[in-house]
Specification:
Blueprint: E1 17-20, E2 35-36, E3 40-43, E4 53-56, E5 60-63, E6 70-72, E7 76-85, E8 89-100, E9 105-107, E10 113-115, E11 120-123, E12 126-127, E13 129-133, E14 137-140, H1 145-158, E15 161-164, H2 175-188, E16 196-202, H3 210-218, E17 221-226, H4 247-255, E18 260-263, H5 276-291, E19 297-300, H6 305-313, E20 319-323, H7 325-329, H8 353-363, E21 370-372, H9 381-384, H10 399-409, H11 416-428, E22 436-440, E23 444-445, E24 450-452, E25 455-457, E26 465-466, E27 469-472
Parallel strand pairs: 14-15, 15-16, 16-17, 17-18, 18-19, 19-20, 20-21
Antiparallel strand pairs: 1-11, 2-7, 3-7, 4-5, 6-9, 7-8, 9-12, 10-11, 13-22, 22-27, 23-26, 24-25
Length: 473
């Protein structure tokens, strides 16, 4: 668990730091006057406060007794003032503890701090390890057939549960079909896996309201997915008349407290591709919320500041949103830099940088309205690298690494666990997981591809290095 004192925001990450000590020019001061550097902030373990300071003849001043290995309950950020005297070398004074960052934090058995002749301070050995409640994925595409068998283990390795999307061929439109699909998923899992797929129904103009009652009683189905017809992969059977033909179903969903999971885009050809989410909010979602204020709605994979503002303006507990890793770390330039990038193509499409920044601010704010949903959507390489490529990014192997990267960059690692592990189950009215997962600041390389019986699948950031490595505990 990450602990912080909110009044003292993080100053930098625990990876490494180099702080040159700069002093006034020797020629511009009296020979017997002390020279003082600006205050520096440095990371030291608690035992460092009791370490003796000694002057070494050839290597300047150093802290002794820092060759150790321990698992600390807390890791402190100290303010350290350096003062240089021409005759007596360097002295140090320790100021107050600024904040408690991580618990636990493993310190490697190498010198933590050294001060050399070149007046450089370096932090060498702080290895960050976060232990958090195992996350859930509240928006996942597992497909079926050989693709399902190839990808499900990646999600099961990191996540305890997942809301599984119903847009198969044919779509999962009934509770009976959802139960059968769940059994197929379970049979595709490793024998020792505890992964729990949470199923959904595909809403159509002809959905029978009785299916909502059956879904709730099944204890297998946890949501109904609204795809506007033609909005994304396998959405041709989607809704064309939400407030007409689907009205009885929506009323039944309110009665049984069944969430509506919304792909929030209009599909009219007159609407610009990059404005589809904004127009959907104005013309469909806002009227829906006004008409059904007690209907639980998840706006899936939000991509714009318009969506963030809308979710934040609604009654808490009834409207929430999932946010994908790709929409937090990429903007629409990522589709075209260095040529067309088909493996960065997804729907909703990547947006402007101002929208990406709005999403980052939302998820790192601590708001309970936003939670993890990868929208991991695998396609065979041949269906991505072609003249009419499919929309979807396979991010299951890298999602947690990317979320951690975003929260670290925003100095908000203390809010990561709520976003990944608490907000989702709380909104759905489900218990939080008891299992844990460890996130280590350990560089690792993303595989170039994952081969399966019928071909291969390219993951997000294929072949690149990522900083955070998730490991189940």
């Amino acid at each position: 668990m990450v602990k912080t004192l909110s009044s003292y925001p993080p100053l930098f990450s625990l990876s490494s730091l180099s702080c040159p000590r700069t002093f006034p020019d020797r020629r511009n001061r009296a020979s017997n006057s002390p020279r003082t550097s600006p205050d520096r902030r440095c990371l030291l373990p608690p035992v460092a406060a009791n370490c003796k300071i000694r002057r070494l003849p050839q290597s300047g001043a150093s802290l002794s007794l820092l060759y150790f290995s321990s698992l600390l309950e807390k890791f402190y950020l100290f303010s350290v003032t350096f003062k240089m005297s021409a005759s007596k070398g360097t002295t140090f004074s320790y100021c107050r503890v600024m904040m408690t960052l991580f618990s636990p934090c493993k310190i490697s058995p190498i010198p933590v701090v050294s001060f050399g002749c070149k007046s450089t301070l370096k932090i060498y050995s702080a290895k960050m390890e976060l232990s958090i409640t195992q996350p859930d994925d509240w928006h996942l595409h597992l497909r079926d057939g050989d693709v399902l068998k190839a990808v499900v283990s990646h999600s099961a390795h990191h996540f305890g549960r997942a809301i599984v999307m119903p847009n198969l061929k044919p779509p999962i439109t009934t509770t009976a079909a959802a139960v059968a699909y769940r059994e197929t998923i379970l049979k595709s899992l490793p024998a020792d896996s505890d992964f729990n797929p949470l199923m959904t129904l595909y809403l159509t103009d002809t959905t029978n309201p009785i299916e909502i009652k059956l879904a709730r009683e099944s204890q297998v189905v946890f949501g109904v997915k609204l795809y506007p017809a033609g909005a994304t992969t396998n959405s041709q059977d989607g809704v064309t008349d939400l407030f007409g033909k689907c009205l009885p179903v929506l009323q039944e969903m309110v009665k049984h407290n069944m969430p509506l999971l919304v792909h929030g885009e209009v599909t009219s050809p007159e609407v610009d591709m990059f404005d589809r989410e904004k127009v959907f909010i104005e013309t469909i979602l806002s009227p829906l919320v006004q008409k059904f204020p007690r209907l639980k709605v998840v706006m899936e994979h939000v991509t714009t500041m318009d969506a963030v503002k809308f979710v934040e303006s609604c009654t808490e507990g009834f409207i929430a949103a999932t946010v994908t890793p790709q929409h937090l770390v990429l903007n629409r330039n990522s589709l075209f830099q260095g040529g067309l990038q088909p493996h960065n193509y997804c729907l909703p499409i990547l947006k402007r940088e101002i929208h990406r920044e709005a999403l980052v601010s939302a998820v790192t704010s601590g708001s309970k309205r936003f939670f993890l949903g990868t929208d991991s959507a695998p396609h065979d390489r041949r269906r991505k690298e072609c003249s009419c490529g499919c929309a979807g990014i396979f991010n299951a192997p890298v999602a947690l690494s990317l979320y951690a990267k975003v929260f670290e960059k925003e100095n908000a690692l203390d809010k990561l666990e709520a976003f990944t592990s608490f907000n989702g189950p709380d909104f759905y009215g489900l218990p939080r997981n008891n299992s844990k997962i460890k996130l280590s600041k350990t560089p690792w390389k993303v595989p170039e591809s994952f081969t399966y019986a019928s071909g291969d699948i390219i993951p997000m950031f294929a072949g690149e290095m990522l900083d955070w490595l998730p490991t189940p505990l």
